[in-house]
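Morning F.,

Quick status update on the modeling queue. The single chain you submitted on Monday has been processed. Sequence for confirmation:
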Amino acid sequence: MIDISPEETRKIAAALVKTAIEIVSEEDGGAHNQCKLCGASVPWLKTGDEIKHAPDCPVVIAQRVLSAKPRLHSV
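Structure tokens below.
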């Protein structure tokens, strides 16, 4: 493992959450927001934040990292 700061970890998690969702067009002219990693999706009128990802999806881990409160580490 590399030595990485908590702030760097949060930046990586934020980038993953932002880039994992794509808009997918459908043949009938509709569209939906879909996770590129686990395939979960919601209709176009809902946001990507409303997607229920698979439990082992990296986005779920990234969301946990972003929602965690930073801890102070003693040296």
